[in-house]
Known about the structure:
Layout: H1 2-25, E1 38-45, E2 48-55, H2 66-74, E3 83-87, H3 93-101, E4 106-111, H4 114-127, E5 135-139, E6 153-158, H5 166-175, E7 180-191, H6 196-206, E8 211-220, E9 223-230
Parallel strand pairs: 3-4, 3-6, 4-5, 6-7
Antiparallel strand pairs: 1-2, 7-9, 8-9
The structure holds S-adenosylmethionine.
Residues 27-28, 59-60, 65, 68, 88-90, 93-94, 110-113, 116, 141-142, 159, 161 line the site of S-adenosylmethionine (SAM).
Amino acid sequence: MEHILDGMKSKKIKEKLNDMEKKNQHYSTQFPDVRVRVYSVSESLKHHLFFFKTVTGIFSFKQLDLGTKVFIEHMKIPEQGSILLDLGCGYGAIGIVLAYLKPKSTVYFTDINKRALWCAKENIRFNLSERIGKTILLQGSYFKPFENKSIKFDGVYMNPPLRKGRQEFLKLCEDVPRHLKSKGQFQFVIKRKMGAEYIQNYLTTHFSDLYETIEVTFKRSGYWIFCLTTK
Ligand SMILES: C[S@@+](CC[C@H](N)C(=O)[O-])C[C@H]1O[C@@H](n2cnc3c(N)ncnc32)[C@H](O)[C@@H]1O
């Protein structure tokens, strides 16, 4: 009898874990497969209070990810009039802070997840009312939305979806320089435990011909911020 109950319990636990997995991690799809619930997140970033609308099925919908927060506080931002990209924008925190601080720059937001992009649009409207004209949202995988467009960026910013595997991210690092201007910067954040050191070693060993410098510019709370600058 106990044995049967144990079996039932572990089935329930497995179902619960699967459910949690779905809710927390399966955000990197075009149409997430979880019921929509709306949340709100508020966060002080660069000495300004931002409000974000979020929904289930997107990354870190209950609170701003700590890696994203560390990244925003320490990312380098080029002068006004630059062309910037928040790649894999989620609900838009990185790009919104960039657009808030540099209202004369143009900030693109892209994500594969349609729900994330919907939230980013709402959040731009709410947080950047006078600056909306300089923001552009595009849905699609990585640089696909820019195919047949001759846009080159001064800066690409990212908290990458590393749960999809390091290889996919390293392939992206190889692709990014084609989309950057000369001396353009690709900045991103990696959790130490998700292989920051491996990524640093891989980049310096394999991509030093693609980038002029490959630097870790800041480390805090187990997060490493990278800045790769093109030639
Ligand atoms: C770690 S989350 C970061 C989200 C947001 N930038 C933040 O910091 O809160 C990674 C984001 O990349 C998006 N993503 C995953 N695969 C993608 C792809 N192939 N193309 C574009 N975005 C993708 C996910 O939907 C997710 O929003």
